[in-house]
Amino acid sequence: MADLVFFTGTMDCGKSTLALQMDHNARQRGLAGRLFTCHDRAGAATLSSRLGLTVPAVEVRPHLDLQQYVVAEMTAGARIDYLICDEAQFYSGAQVEQLGRIVDELSVEVYAFGILTDFRTRLFEGSQRLVELADRVEALQVQALCWCGRRGTHNARTVGGVMVTEGAQVVVGDTDEGATLEIGYEVLCRRHHRRRVTAHAAGAGSPSPDVLPFGASA
Q1: Residues 180-205: pLDDT tens digits?
Q2: How far is CA 163 from the centre of its chain?
Q3: Is 125 one of the catalytic residues?
Q4: Which of 14, 20, 70, 180 has its CA 20 to 30 A from that of 207?
């Protein structure tokens, strides 16, 4: 029987890399799938990892009905054994429910990948609904590190290196590694997130110049 599985972790823990690896492995076994993403760092309709791998994907826009999309594809003769759904934290609760129906009614495996909480430590809508509905929730074992060396557990938004706790949930970040980041994201341990001590504030180098995978503002 098919399952809805949610793989979660902080930024920098390899979610998108695992998504691409699972898609590759499935295709090597002769299975056919579809890839979905939302607000990827590489731009619309692209699933990318921090290792530099990119593949085309269907952009999950607010009004996309995932179940209707899959049904239409299968009705037209397409074979779909599984779905890879990256950046699932940005999906709406209704879209996550559609993923559940795809599993239950169409027997298609669904593998969703995303972070749990935003820069305010609040659950994303899509992640919350996935935790509520998924057959399994698996925390990725690759640990992202805070600048202090402790396990990174919280995603912080920074403006000019200074942590902020107010603003829209989804905001474009500068993805140019050579640029001075005005709006960026950083993984912190709980202690330093609570104290708002970023790598910049501590005078330490940031462990990652990348930002959360926001390809466009919501």
Answers
A1: 447 888 889 989 998 999 998 888 75
A2: 21
A3: no
A4: 20
